[in-house]
Amino acid sequence: MHIYATKKVMQAFKKAEKMTSGTIENMTILEESDSPEEQALFEWHINSVKVNQEDLLIVTHDLSGLTLLIVNADTEDLLDFYEWFEEALYDLLGKLGFSHKSIQQYLTYSKGRQLTLGKATDFKKIGRNSSAVSLLRQLDYYQENEYMVQSYWQYQTSRLNRSLKQASQPFTQFINEYEKVIGPVSFNVNMAEIEVRLKMGDLPDVIRVIQMPMQLTFEDLHRVIQKVFMWQDAHLHQFIMEDGATVISAEQKRSMERYQMESQAEASAASQLKLADVITPEENGIFTYVYDFGDSWEHRIRVRRFYSENRRMFPKLSLMSGEPVPENVGGPPGYADFLEVINDPTHDEHSVIKEWANDYFTRLNLFNDVNNFNHDLTVMHS
Question: Would you indicate the residue range of the signal peptide (predicted)?
Fold first, then answer.
């Protein structure tokens, strides 16, 4: 494995090397810029940047644009850089469903568990690394700084980093090159079939059954629920687990901590918590997702079954019952009133409510379809 480093990062590694009076474990620092690797599959670029007051090492794969993030890596931490690199890679490829064996094959196929570090001189590839930095800065908010590997953001940045305008998405590009050089990727994806039931009071519940990879996060599950219920992600949300624990967005958690709201500060950040960390056959098989604390849309989530797949998997909607409801309608009681007015052309408020709901009905007619939802879910995670 070879990593091209900017001048700043190269100097930091050399400083760390002096601290050891020898060489950094699993790493050889080269004076020349050329890679000793024979395959571009094993070449990366690294830079050190500051994003939202956090010092980051950003490592990008030259061919695909996959991105690894390591936070607050000071000189002493660089002595264990291989461990951080390996942890970040396991986290990212694990979210794609790579088996432990396939990840280990990638790490050892070229030079064993060894990294070489050389000077970055290719401006085109340096630009790919810079584009990952730009993507990271464009994301809505940043995560808690106690996480050395920023799982969610390296996943999202990797998914979007197409600075060389390759035909394939970054994940697909990496998998294709892997299979060309090493052989077929073996996948091991733990799955859960979950029923999400929007409780509607006296009206029939709105139900969606989703196949969900367990290596994805609660933030991913939030986005999937938003998609298949046609919510617009315009309000706060939280998960309330069977054991009483709460899971909220990282942005919300950070705001609550800022205003010293202790109960919310103790909640977990959705983007840093994988489903498999919390949901098991023994625990949290039933929990709640609440969206919009004003209208209080309560979704009861029940795990129907656990199973595994040996292929790459995406979230998938397998069953839908009932139509999505409009935002800001006043919860289940407000929706009941909405239906009464919209279904009665003689009602005094019919024309006003119909105009107010025009966007909702347009989206309902265009997008409320299983195939459309599944196309969007695949795009979101490919």
Answer: none
What residue spans in the chain does CATH classification 3.30.420 cover? Answer: 2-181
pLDDT digits (tens, 9 = 90+) for 76-125: 778 888 988 999 999 999 999 999 999 999 999 987 888 888 888 877 77
CATH number of the structural domain 2-181? 3.30.420
Full-model pTM: 0.85
Task: List, in sequence order, every residue forming a beta bridge with 210; answer none if it has no partner.
Answer: 194, 317
Q: What pLDDT digit, counting tens, does each position of 243-295 carry?
A: 888 988 877 776 666 665 555 546 787 887 899 999 999 888 999 999 999 99
DSSP state of 96: T
Residues 216-248: tens digit of each pLDDT: 999 999 999 999 999 999 999 999 998 888 988
CA–CA separation, 372 and 193 (whole Å): 19
Q: Whole-angstrom Cα distance, residue 126 to residue 270?
A: 32
278 φ, ψ (degrees, to nearest 5): -125, -40
Distances (CA, A) of 330 to 200, 232, 334, 337, 368: 12, 15, 4, 9, 21
DSSP string, 292-353: -TTT-EEEEEEEEEEEEESS----EEEEEES----TTS-HHHHHHHHHHHHT-TTSTTHHHH
Q: Is the dihedral of CA 286, 292, 296, 297 positive or negative?
A: negative
Name the segment(s) of the chain with CATH classification 3.10.290.30: 189-381
Q: How many residues does the chain have?
A: 382
